[in-house]
Amino acid sequence: MELSVYGERDGVAEINFTPTLNRAVVTNTFRMLIEGDVVLDGIVMWTEAVPRPNGMLMYKCPQGDVTGAELAICTVWQGVIYTSDDKGNIELLPAEGADAPAKLIFPDLARSLQRSAAFDADELSKVPWDVFALKGCQE
């Protein structure tokens, strides 16, 4: 999972997962590259009350200690990340160490990005589809 690469149907975006480097709360880290030059940083943290992989995509967040308000401003998408196998069975995104699923589903990604600071700043002319298919591994 931690070295998997995904692409979406229109070729607008790619997702590259990276090792979390033993971060206590974060179960997955990744980058979404849109149109080749816009980079969104992604993390996944599992919720406790109802266990779900809560994903967040951030755009140009400040480095170092960040307040909740600063994080809210730079977050361009947030939601549960679902997966699908080749038969259409839907599951939740696994943590590092598991096999990479065939597809990832980011519900309402395109609409969220259209409302984001990246789109408003004219850095995005297109937005990706919500479903990404496994393309390979970085190794």
Describe the structure.
The chain is mostly beta strands and 139 residues long. 12% of the residues lie in helices and 41% in strands. The protein has a ten-stranded antiparallel sheet with strand order 6-5-4-3-2-1-10-9-7-8. The longest helix has 7 residues, at 68-74. The chain is globular, with a radius of gyration of 14 Å.
Characteristics:
139 residues, mainly beta, 3 helices, globular
Global outline: globular
**What's the helical proportion of residues?**
10-25%
- CA distance, first residue to last residue: 12 Å
Assess the beta-strand content as a share of residues.
35-45%
Order of helices and strands: EEEEEHEEEEHHE
- Determine the oligomeric state from the structure: single chain
Radius of gyration: 14 Å
What ranges have pLDDT less than 50 throughout 5 or more consecutive residues? none
User: How many DSSP E strands?
Assistant: 10
Largest sheet: 10 strands, antiparallel
Report the total helices. Answer: 3
Global mean pLDDT: 89
Look at the helices and sheets and give the structural class: mainly beta
Summary, kept brief:
This protein is mostly beta strands and 139 residues long.
Q: What is the element layout, followed by pairings?
A:
Blueprint: E1 4-8, E2 13-18, E3 26-34, E4 38-46, E5 53-58, H1 68-74, E6 75-80, E7 82-84, E8 90-92, E9 103-105, H2 109-114, H3 117-120, E10 131-137
Antiparallel strand pairs: 1-2, 1-10, 2-3, 3-4, 4-5, 5-6, 7-8, 7-9, 9-10
